[in-house]
Amino acid sequence: MKIFFLLLNIFVHSMLFGQRITINEFRELSLENKVEYYFDNFVGIPHRTSHSLWAGTIVSHHGKAVVPYIKEQLKTATYFTYREEPIDDTLSLIAYILSSLNRASLYPQYYLSSGVPEFILYEEEIRWFYNEYMKRINEYVLLYRIIDENVMLNMIHISFIARNQEDLFQFFGYPYYRGIPVNLQGNEMKKFFEERLGIQNLLITIPYIE
Fold first, then answer.
1. pLDDT tens, 53-99?
2. Is the link from the previous residue into 117 a cis peptide, with omega within 30 of 0?
3. Which end of the chain is more exposed for a tag (fewer CB within 10 A), N or C?
4. What average pLDDT does the chain have?
5. Across 18-22, 45-49, 193-197, least confident range
6. CB 78 within 8 A of CB 141
């Protein structure tokens, strides 16, 4: 009997995640299955601005109940996987969910149709995600000694954790660029990481970051 249920579970999983589903079908999944589908299907696909729709759907239906699931996904995620094929950019997918939580906390009237309770990340939760992302980018910078696209991407990911950059500056002393595009902040990033990590002579490797 146990073997039967195991085979049934494998069959259902393959039917569910072995092919793409529509956003309406996605809405009908459980939270666990939504998260699994989201990460399994989008982890290596470029140009995923449209994936914010899927992240927003998870948040609109389940609110902060998604947080333990993305913490679990974060355990093995690093920035080193952005440098090689196949790319695993789990950190970007988590950031989309965090961004959706913050948007929902600012505009709950657009997210409450399904009766979801809470969206707001409290300071200790923001601090936890901030520290986890910074730990990963610190490891990356210390190994490669560069300020590159992945460092820039991390700065964007960080900005999704709180509702605004002023909060990040207030909580952590995180650089507040006052609306200046992050791709123009290479020197500021270099200074920030050299001071944070106690190192010198980081190389800025992307020409359009000045």
1. 899 999 989 999 999 999 999 999 999 999 888 889 999 999 999 99
2. no
3. N
4. 81
5. 45-49
6. no
- CA geometry: angle at 131 spanning 125 and 135, to 5°? 150
pTM of the predicted structure, to 2 decimals: 0.82
3-state secondary structure of 146: strand
Of 103, 102, 109, nearest to 125 by C-alpha is 102
Q: Is pLDDT at 6 greater than 50 in this prediction?
A: no
CB-based burial label for 127 (10 Å; 0-12, 13-18, 19+)? middle
Q: Is the pLDDT of residue 204 over 50?
A: yes
Residues 6+ apart with CB under 8 A from 121: 64, 67, 98, 101, 102, 105, 129, 161, 162
Q: Which amino acid is at 93?
A: L
Burial of 105 (0-12, 13-18, 19+ CB in 10 A): middle
Amino acid at the residue 131: N
Cα-Cα-Cα-Cα dihedral sign, residues 86, 6, 76, 166: positive
The Cα–Cα gap between 98 and 74 comes to 12
Residue at 138: amino acid letter: N
Residue-level pLDDT at 69: 97
* Residue 78, φ and ψ in degrees, nearest 5: -140, 170
Cα–Cα distance measured from residue 207 to residue 205, given in angstroms and rounded to the nearest whole number: 6
